[in-house]
Specification:
With about 300 residues, this protein is an all-alpha fold. It has one domain. The chain is built from 10 helices and no strands. The protein is globular and about 50 Å long. It starts with a helix and ends with a helix.
């Protein structure tokens, strides 16, 4: 059940990427689009959290836990890492292209997920680095590389931006672990999501302010309603992932989520492609490979456990 949720919110991430990508084009500024996404998500989750007694109590439990040192301050700052990720995406993608950025992020995520699980940062406890887990991580990275292969011709290798993309991939895994720990205390994923959106919005606002000070501009807000729904999709992702990470661990969540993103990309590129030729054999093959590798690694791990 939790694995299915991880895949489904991966599809939601793909939808959010399509929405925010269009908004970025409309505004001619990726950071401005990210800020709109964060603020709309924050507005919605604020209404939900402060409008219901249980959600307010959950948020209060987080603050009490920090005060009593049940949670360290850095553990509730997952949204900052999310904001850094979005800011990095806006800065790095224009330099190296979407394909290299995606591969670098996935590489950082999969490798760090193994380490995050081993360190026991998530509430699911420490998990050993086993052969099936390593194979699953490597197979996922290869599958994503295949899926984005057509775009690699438009990418340019630059060491520093690539390194930055790897680092924010690591941040993404750590953020999932942190959110899982916070949600154990909150017991309500919307309260965890509120912290993420509030702190993430601050980071993106600062980044956008610097961008504008350096001469960037923003086009007028578009009239299409659907481009403002990215924050809602982001809220679904953060809330659901904070809830299920305890049951899956970071690596399993990341792999399943990536599979969902690839499936979502196929659906979107079929129904509403951002550009001609988006849906291709590489994307389909990479997606199938991801799903098959997950199934094989799980079967292998199950057999080793029985043995």
């Amino acid at each position: 059940m939790f694995a299915i949720f991880a895949v489904l919110i991966g599809v939601v991430v793909a939808i959010q990427s399509r929405i925010n990508g269009q908004l970025s084009v409309d505004l001619d500024n990726g950071l401005a689009a990210a800020l709109v996404s964060f603020l709309t998500g924050l507005a919605l989750v604020t209404v939900l959290v402060f409008g219901f007694k249980r959600e307010r109590a959950a948020l209060f439990r987080i603050f009490v836990a920090v005060k009593n040192k049940e949670l360290l301050t850095w553990e509730v700052m997952g949204g900052v890492l999310g904001g850094v990720f979005v800011a990095a995406q806006s800065i790095v993608v224009p330099q190296i292209g979407v394909a290299l950025f995606t591969i670098s992020v996935v590489a950082g995520q999969t490798v760090s997920s193994l380490l995050v699980d081993k360190a026991g940062i998530t509430p699911s406890g420490k998990q050993k680095i086993t052969k099936p887990r390593i194979l699953g991580a490597v197979a996922t990275l290869i599958a994503v590389a295949i899926a984005v292969f057509p775009d690699l011709t438009d990418s340019e290798f630059r060491f520093l931006p690539l390194t930055f993309a790897l680092i924010v991939g690591v941040f993404a895994s750590i953020q999932q672990g942190m959110n899982g720990r916070v949600n154990v205390i909150a017991q309500r994923p919307l309260a965890t999501a509120w912290l993420n959106f509030a702190s993430g919005a601050v980071v993106v606002l600062v980044a956008l302010s610097v961008d504008l000070a350096l001469g960037a501009t923003i086009e007028p807000l578009p009239s299409n309603f659907w481009v403002y729904t990215g924050g809602t999709a982001g809220l679904v992702f953060v809330a659901v992932s904070a809830y299920i990470i305890k049951h899956l661990g970071v690596l399993n969540f990341v792999i399943l989520n990536i599979a969902g993103q690839l499936v979502g990309a196929i659906i979107i590129d079929w129904l509403a492609p951002a550009k001609a030729g988006s849906l291709n054999g590489y994307l389909i093959f990479g997606t199938v490979m991801t799903i098959v590798s997950i199934a094989v690694s799980k079967l292998y791990e199950a057999r080793k456990t029985k043995a």
